[in-house]
Structures are given as structure tokens and as C-alpha cells.
Amino acid sequence: MEEADVNSYGNFKEPSKVDGHRVSKLLHRLSGQPESFVNKKDYIFGKTLGAGTFGVVRQARKISTRENVAVKILLKKALKGNDVQLQLLYDELKILQKLDHPNIVKFKDWFESKDKFYIVTQLATGGELFDRIISKGKFTEKDAAKIMKQILSGVQYIHSKNIVHRDLKPENVLYISPSDDSPLVIADFGIAKELKSGDDLIFKAAGSLGYVAPEVLTTSGHGKPCDIWSVGVITYTLLCGYSPFVAESVEGFLEECTAERNPVKFQKPYWDDISVDARKFILRALVLSPKRRPTASELLEDPWIVNCTHTKDILPSVKRVCDARAKFRDAVEIVKLNNRIAKLRKMYCKGDEAETDIEENDSSSCMSAETLSSLKNLSLSEQSTNSSCLSEQEKKLKSALTQDAFAQLVRAARKNQEKVMNYKEPSQNSSNAASDSV
Question: What is the dihedral of CA 118, 122, 125, 129, to 10 degrees?
């Protein structure tokens, strides 16, 4: 349905709207469109926020409620023959409709066309967790504890429903609005699973390397405790700016976790100003045995969450480590976004056929082909450097893992061209600090 039709539909009076709705349903049925496709007329679609393997996420406005929302648009052609991904889609829809919590992104609606699925959720406009922290003038341990309390509250809620998120990471924790007192919500339930019982296990690996729990990558099965591990990694990263684990392959990560009794290190000088309570909290969450990990409810009663009063500014230390990396990530991901959108358009469109649902983000589409090419080469160069010391078998494994781990990645490409073009290499001191710690 063209957007001009949507606008005119929005001006109809109530009785005409009802009649028009019925007529539209009949026309769609005659044209082979599913009955729910009529719902699309109630939305005006805006900019593209992100793109994944099977579709895009776009901002939209629901005309009847005047509410801004996010719409995940998945191409049926991309999902065709992929029973696993179709099941994940139905699982996500089933799970989202069961959830209602202040720290969980809200499900709004879903409908489909002959060619696409549309999942409508609450729109979070306040930005990703780390982007927001880096932009702040001050960040304290007390602030971090408040953030983790909200995340744990969301985790406690979904676990009470026997739902495991399986992909908790800073990119999937969003602020609802730009205001200072905006609540946080956990988003992207694309690989979440509902368990038959509280102790039920899942045996198919899924998640993002760096935040995924070790048992997820083995054949032993995983359940709710895998989310607690991710909570520990997020907390560690919040307080110092880098991850507690540096391995880039499954084997390397598992070896890193089991090589020593306690694989989590608190390096100087980054942890000098962080409290003992915070370190104990992290170590509780990052226990290797899932059976020995505390529940979200137990962590909500941890002394660090309940009583943290440390107000010393730790932002300079955190920012020094992760700011330059974030800028590079922004640049590379704009390339990824364009590549994914181009691939989806090619898959869907025939000849000169237009596809208005799959649109490029304004900030990325205005970049020159030369700039995109150079950024792409930079990304490939970094991959080559990181894997130069790996065996051929390890390289193949890493490539497969990277594709898998980021298949669910629908990360916002809202950063504008100016931010990318103004990227500068970090100073020597800053670069050394990051490489020594990460």
C-alpha cells in the first residue's frame, strides 16, 4: 500500500473508516493478500533503523493512535525453506504477546502480506546503552548499579514466565526516550525461547560471542542461567569499557573460561576505583557452573544493587577504552546496513520494480560509493589482521560463528555521515591502554 493512500485513509471520518476497512479486507482477499494486511493502512513508514539477514527495522507512525513505533519487516522469500528461522519468528511473536513489563520492549501488533511479515513494537528513541553512557558528562558506579537493577528486573520477569532471552548485550538494551530519567527496556527477542518448565534445557547454540555463556556453546544444554552470565559480562563492561573475555573463537573462549579457576581479571588501573561489592557481584554472575549461578531475584538483593553509594566519576576511564572502538563500529555498521539492504532488495525486486518497505537509511545512502568502499576495506582489513594467526580450520569456524552470532543483529544505523567522516585514530597512549586490557 502506497504511503499516499495511508495519508488519505488517515483523514477519513470514523464511519467511512469502518466501511473502508471492510472493503479493503474484501479487496485484499480477492487479490490474495492475507486478511491482516488491511492493518498496514494504519501505518506511515519512516526511516530505516537497522537491517538483518531476513529483513529491516523501520520507524513508523500508527495513524489511529498517533504513536511512533518500530516495525520489523521480514521477507518471506528470505525465510522460505528455512524452517528454523520461521520457527524463531513464530516463537518471537508468541513470546512478545505474553510480556508486559516496564523494562521489556512492548509488543504492539503484527500483520502480514503475501510477501512479508510485520512485527510492530514500542519505539525506543533514547539510544543504545553504551552510546548513551559515552555521551554523558558523568557516569558513576551508582549509575551502573541503577542500570543493572532495571536489566535484572526485566530478566527476573521473563524468567518468571519461563522465557530465556539468550542474547542479552548492551546493543539490545535501549532507552525509551532521550530524557535523563528514561527507563531502559530489553529488546530483540529474535532468538528467545519459552521453556516447558523452569528447569528445561535448550540444546541448540545461539547468541553473541563475548556475551554468550559457555554452556550455550557445548552439548550440555542451557537455560535461564545463561542470561545471568550475560548480566555479569554487561556489568563488567559497564564499569571499565572492555570485555572480561578476549577470545575470538568458540574454542578460545571455552579455553579462556576453563584454563584457570577464576578467568575474570580486574586489571589495574581500570578497576582501582571500583568497589569490592561490584567485583563480588560480577564474580557471582560469572560462575562457570550454571547450577551455582544466582537467579535474577537473588542478584536484585545483592549488596551492590541495593546499597551502592559510590559517586566517583568513572566515565573518563570507560570512555578512553571504548570511545574509539565505538566510532569505528559505527562506520563499519553503516556499510553492513547498506550491504544487507541491497541484498534484501535484490532478493525481493524484479527488474525496475520498486520496494518501498526496504529503504536505505538516509545517513548511509548519502555517503559516496568511494567512502563506503574504503570503509568496507577497512573492515575486511581488520578481520584479516585478527585472524592472521589462526589455522585454516579456525578461520572457517570463526567466519561461520561471526555470521551466526550476528544474524540477529538489527543495530541502529542512526549515526550520521559527519560522525563517520570525522573519525580520528586514537592517541598512542589511548591505543596502548585498550590493547593491553582488551
Answer: -100
CB 438 within 8 Å of CB 431: no
Catalytic site residues? 167
* DSSP per-residue string spanning 360-418: --HHHHTS-HHHHHHHHHHHHHHHHHHTTTS-HHHHHHHHHHHHHHTTT--------HH
DSSP state of 295: P
Domain boundaries, the chain: 3-31+41-122, 126-438
Provide the CATH number for the domain formed by 126-438 in this structure. Answer: 1.10.510.10
Tell me whether residue 72 is annotated as binding. yes
Convert the pLDDT of each residue in 263-277 to its tens digit.
Answer: 899 998 889 999 999
For β-strands 116-122 and 163-164, DSSP reports them as unpaired
Domain spanning 3-31+41-122: which superfamily?
Answer: Phosphorylase Kinase; domain 1 (3.30.200.20)
Fold matches, 3-31+41-122 and 126-438: no
Rounded to 5 degrees, φ, ψ at 39 are: -65, -25
Q: How many residues does the chain have?
A: 438
Per-residue pLDDT of 70-107, as tens digits, reads 999 999 888 877 888 888 888 999 999 999 999 999 99
